[in-house]
Protein 1
Amino acid sequence: MPQRYMVYGVLLAAAVIQTLWYWPRLLDRVVSTYDAAGDPSGSMAKPLFFALHLLMVAVCVVVFAGLEVILRKAPPSLINIPNREYWLAPDRREATYGRLGESIRSYGTATLVFLIVLAELVIRQNLWPESSVPTIGLWIAASAFVVFTVAWVIRFLLMFRVEP
């Protein structure tokens, strides 16, 4: 695995460790959906919960790692960035791909952390249903991810805004 993808491997391993750690601690049914007030509204079998969790994490790893690989093989006309002609000129193309790859990796990392945190909050709510901390944690995690996404988009647009 190239070093630039190491964080994906670490986060995938974290999701697997999370699954192995909590598997024996949870009941056979896991409350997995909640209404706006934070009250349980649906559940699923424990194996399905963890299978979906690991599948989502694995798919994100494949998509974000694959996106960077595909990006380098795609013709420049298919890459949608501001001032594309300037940034994908032959003498700047490799540096631009590096910047795009770094941006993809940062968003991929944030997405994976968000998924792992969400699973952790759902698991904790199942282990300690009387606690309101996971519900508050959900709002904090979701808000942080939205703020990160907005900042990421602004940074991305500014990164390629004009020719230097």
Protein 2
Amino acid sequence: MHFNEKLRKLRKTKELSQSMLSKLTKIPQTTISDWETNKTSPDLKQLKMLCDVLEVSIIQLLDDVT
């Protein structure tokens, strides 16, 4: 599974829109959209913010990512 697919799946599992995730992480919605469409990737600080909001570890977020 690619990172963009895993992020989208985790976000939807938590019933969060991109906009809601943006507000919770203070990461622009356009950036989250770019990640989910595989245009860019998050840096380590952004990964940490995502993990905190999605309640997963970085290992869980990146596990099985190709």
Protein 3
Amino acid sequence: MEHIAFAAPTRVGDIMYIEAQATAIFGSSVEVMISVWAETSEVGGLFACGDAYATVVSSELFVE
């Protein structure tokens, strides 16, 4: 993980939505932006509760 930001707390019973999107693709790695949203049954509606950036690196090098 390169960066994690917690914007708001969540509680037991909240519905969590996680969205991941590739932001950069390299030879053997991918940078991914992860957004986390939550929905509470008390208030309703979605609110942002966190986001992160991660780099995923291949453990094997595929050669054709």
